[in-house]
Amino acid sequence: MAANTTISWARHTGNLWWGCQEVHAGCANCYARVWASRWGKSLWGQGGRQVIKSVWADLARFQREAAALGEVHRVFVGSMMDIFEKPHPLVDAQGQPLAGDTGALRTRFFEQVVPASPNLQFLLLTKRPGNIAKYVPAAWLSRPPTNVLYGYSVVDKASLRELAKLVAVPGRRFASLEPLLAPLDLTPWLGPAGVEWVIVGGESGAGRCAQRPIQPLHPAWARALRAQCQAAGVAFHFKQHGEYQEVPAGAPAQAGDRWLRLDGTLAPGPEPAPAVRVRRVGSREAGHLLDGQHYLGFPAA
């Protein structure tokens, strides 16, 4: 639960616990819940969260390795949890109750790990931006740590309304638009006083555990966000297209091809531009190039 990661925008992941509660549309096909289901674990909802005891040694090792190289390494906290979720009871790997709760683990991380890790940049991604000021140490609100970036998952217009809560928190901030489910305008929140980094990605598959059909990403949505970031001088990171890719004009049709309208709805037959023809090919084949280029922007270390 804490290791080198294939996630393009982080060097490592670190999870204090495993489990969460769904709160918005981006949670419908959550990969962390899918993995828990495959392992037969009941860690989603109002129940317990599985403690990850090895994370503390791993985080200390990440700091030693980065310091030895004279580098700053990014750590995503956490890929299997939401660090700003309200406290939940803890369970072990067999689901048996343990003493304490997730709030105590969070406090330990804030008070002991962050100050001791100058060579790590912690990316604290949440779907609950209104809880950040409630749970971070009070001193962070007047003197934010320079090695922490608060992130918020924005996926559609409903979740975009909460972005103001992230921007209201003193400190460094980023927005993760993955899975991007609709066209969005982040312009009012971009810049030095707001969001300094934007990650964009399409939705990946959840197999039999999917709670709704996979939403294709319209390339115009990503292009618009790229333009918004460039205009504001904000780092732009395009992670992936997701399960679908645009079919080149003139390519032979295949069964299952759909036409994706700019509003995100799908049509079975040809539609005029700006609709595009899309095909489900899997995230690996769909790739991570936007208009034939890599966009792997990062915030300052």
Description:
With 301 residues, the chain is an alpha/beta fold. The chain has one domain: pyruvate-formate lyase- activating enzyme. The chain contains eight helices and 16 strands. An eight-stranded mixed β-sheet has the order 1-2-5-8-9-10-11-12. Strands 3-4-6-7 form a four-stranded mixed β-sheet. A four-stranded antiparallel β-sheet has the order 13-16-14-15. Strand 1 and strand 2 form a beta hairpin. The two termini are 24 Å apart. The model has no long low-confidence stretch (mean pLDDT 95).
- CATH architecture level-2 label: Alpha-Beta Horseshoe
The percentage of residues in β strands lies in 15-25%
> How many domain units?
1
Structural class label: alpha/beta
Q: Major sheet: size, sense and barrel closure? A: 8 strands, mixed
Strands, count:
16
Mean of the pLDDT scores? 95
Q: Separation of termini?
A: 24 Å
Q: Please bin the fraction of helical residues.
A: 10-25%
- List the strand order in the largest sheet: 1-2-5-8-9-10-11-12
Instruction: Give me the strand/helix succession.
Output: EEEHEHEEEHEHEHHEEHEEEEEH
Low-confidence residue ranges:
none
| CATH hierarchy, class | Alpha Beta
Shape: globular
Radius of gyration: 20 Å
Query: Helical region count?
Result: 8
**What oligomeric state best describes the polypeptide chains here?**
single chain
CATH T-level fold name: pyruvate-formate lyase- activating enzyme
